[in-house]
Structure formats: C-alpha cells, structure tokens
Write a structure and sequence with these properties.
The chain is mainly alpha-helical and 358 residues long. The chain has 16 helices and 3 strands.
C-alpha cells in the first residue's frame, strides 16, 4: 500500500510515520538467525503495524527488537533517530523540503569524529531510508515524490568529495525570475512581504527556515547595505549582507503593514510564522510565471542558485562555505562542478601532445 508523502498533518508526525514504516520493513527483511526470542520480536512488529506516537516509543521498540536478537537493526535505526532530532529542530513543514544537500549537512554534523566505518553505515542508512520512501509514497493520481538520494561521493568519507548536482537557475533565468517577482499578482496585503522574503533568500543564499526566523532587529543598516544576523543549524550564528537597494522599498512597505508576534520580520495574517511549504509554493508560482522549470522548483533551489553564482564569480570556496553556513567545506565543494572554465582547462590538458602528432 502506498501513502502520500506528507501523510500526517505535521512534519514531525509524518517523519515518525515513515520511520516506523521503514523499521517495520527492516524487521521483516533482516536475517533472523540470531533471534533468541521470536515472540518478543513478533510483538514489536505487531506494535509497529499499528503506529507509534513518539520517537521515544519507536526507539524503545528498536531496542526491544535488538534485545530479542535482531542486532543488525541498530545499524539502520540509530542514524534515523539522530536524523529525526536534526530535522524536527529545523522546523520544516513538508517532507518535500528534504534534499540531498540537507542530508549531507546532517551527515557532516552527526558523524563528526566517528570512524569511517560508522560514517559508511550512516550513509547506507540514509540511502536505504529515502529509497524506501521513494518506493512507498504515492498520491491518488498516481504521482510520487522521488528523493533520489545517492550520496555517491559524500565528503564525510576520506578520499571522497562532492555530491549530487543540485538544480539552480542560470543568469538569464535569474533575470526572468526577478522580473516575475515584480509582476506576480500577489494580494495587496502580502505583496511587499513576499517580494521582500524571496529577494532576501535569493540575494543572500540563506535557508528558508533561517529567513522565517528573522526578527526586525536582525537587519542592521550600515552604509548602503544591511548586515543580517542569522542563527543557523545547531544555533550557529553568522552574518550575511545585502545591498539596501535590492530590498528597501519592500522592507519599508512591509514594516508599515506587519503585525507579527515575537518581533518576527515575517508572519501570516494571524501574526504567527509562515511555513516553509508556503514559501515553496510562492517560489513555484513565480517560476511558473517566468517559464522556468527545474527538477526541483522549491525555495531551496534559490539557495543553490546563489551559491552557484557566488562560486562562479568569486572562485572562493571558503567564501561559499561562510556565506551559506555549511558545516563542512566538502558540502560547498559541489559548486565547483559548475565551473566551465576549469573544465575547459582540463579539456585542453592534452593539446600540446596532440599537436606534436598532427
């Protein structure tokens, strides 16, 4: 039986649902030669079939399965237990907001200091988990979401570098996207807010979740720019910068309209935080208006676009890491794959030898 990707009414519950389904499938597929208490294992499987209400319950069931003799289950479950804590702390609104970069970021932080063998187990656990969801999710119309998480060259393993190439906009597409931001028919009460929000993400590369957590006091005017104080993953603080000319018009308009709780910069009409799913829908509509189609059209693609443009124009990988708040330089290294000039140099490395034979 297939289930909608966002099966429950909250991200936390949905992620827990998929983890329990995955654990159920693993308990039925792992070798049971070492099982000492088949009845205990059967009780765990039956309990998983009915669903669980918390990650603590799921962890207890995984422990019971291990105690029954299914030792291999820890290899698959322990990384997921950490993934649950990592993703729920980000405040995601939809399973669709997870992509390979986010999983790589998790692995970089969760496996720091661990052995290569353990890092390999974490990588395998991520691939298996999201591969399971790829096969098991589906909507009534027959469509399904595909993560395609491969982590073939995840940088957490020595001797490896890079990851799956993300979707991004080229310069001429960015121009069309910016024009579409200005002309999109937003409601009058949210037009300034939405244009300000999307431009902030595109021009700074901050994560959607980071943008939605911004407070008015986090925008600090200095000369012709705004310094923006960001609190990223793991409560790590960093500063980014944007020219005032890009956003000042919409910032001033929105500040006159906003009525947000807790000094938030962005909020809905109730004064509460916007969701990441809402922001992704806005981006998808603007992209559609601009006639731009990518493999992934969500708001996270704007971050990839900023990072790609930053590297191609400045050729400074450390700058990309600092601007995007990556925990590891290896996560930033993916953007070097878009450098055509470097590739041209590689393509011409044999020219002199070839000419001598002509």
């Amino acid at each position: 039986m297939r289930y909608p990707l966002d099966f429950e009414n909250s991200f936390d519950k949905t992620l827990l649902f998929w983890m329990s389904r995955y654990l159920h499938s693993k308990l039925n597929s792992l070798s049971n030669r070492q099982v000492k208490d088949p009845q205990a294992l059967a009780r765990v499987i039956a309990r998983l079939r009915t669903g669980v209400d918390s990650v603590d319950t799921l962890s207890h069931l995984a422990k019971e399965a291990r105690n029954a003799g299914l030792i291999g289950i820890n290899t698959y479950y322990k990384p997921l237990e950490k993934l649950y804590g990592y993703l729920t702390a980000l405040g995601l609104a939809s399973m669709k907001e997870i992509d390979e970069e986010l999983v790589s970021d998790f692995l970089a932080s969760a496996t720091a200091g661990l052995s290569d063998a353990t890092k390999k187990n974490y990588r395998i656990a991520m691939i298996n988990f999201f591969g399971y969801i790829d096969k098991q999710n589906g909507d009534d119309d027959g469509t399904a979401h595909r993560y395609g998480i491969e982590l073939k060259n995840w940088g957490g393993l020595r001797g490896k570098s890079g990851t799956k190439l993300p979707a991004y906009m080229q310069e001429h597409e960015v121009e069309r996207f910016l024009e579409a931001i200005e002309t999109h028919p937003f409601r009058a009460d949210v037009a300034a807010r939405n244009r300000l929000l999307i431009k902030l993400i595109l021009f700074t590369g901050i994560r959607v979740g980071e943008a939605l957590q911004l407070k008015v006091k986090d925008l600090i005017p200095e000369g012709n720019v705004y310094l923006i104080r960001i609190v990223g993953k793991g409560n790590k603080a960093r500063m980014v910068m944007i020219k005032q000319s890009h956003i000042i018009k919409y910032l001033q308009e929105w500040l006159l309209l906003r009525d947000c709780e807790k000094e938030l910069l962005f909020c809905n009409k109730k004064g509460t935080p916007l969701t990441q799913a809402y922001v992704s829908r806005i981006v998808e509509k603007i992209l559609m208006q601009a006639g731009i189609r990518k493999e992934k059209n969500g708001a996270h693609m704007l971050r990839h676009t900023f990072a790609t443009m930053l590297y191609l124009k400045k050729k400074d990988l450390v700058l990309v890491q600092e601007a995007l708040g990556h925990a590891s330089l290896d996560t930033s290294r993916i953007y070097t794959h878009f450098d055509k000039e470097r590739l041209k140099e590689a393509a011409g490395v044999m020219d002199e030898i070839a000419k001598s034979r002509d």
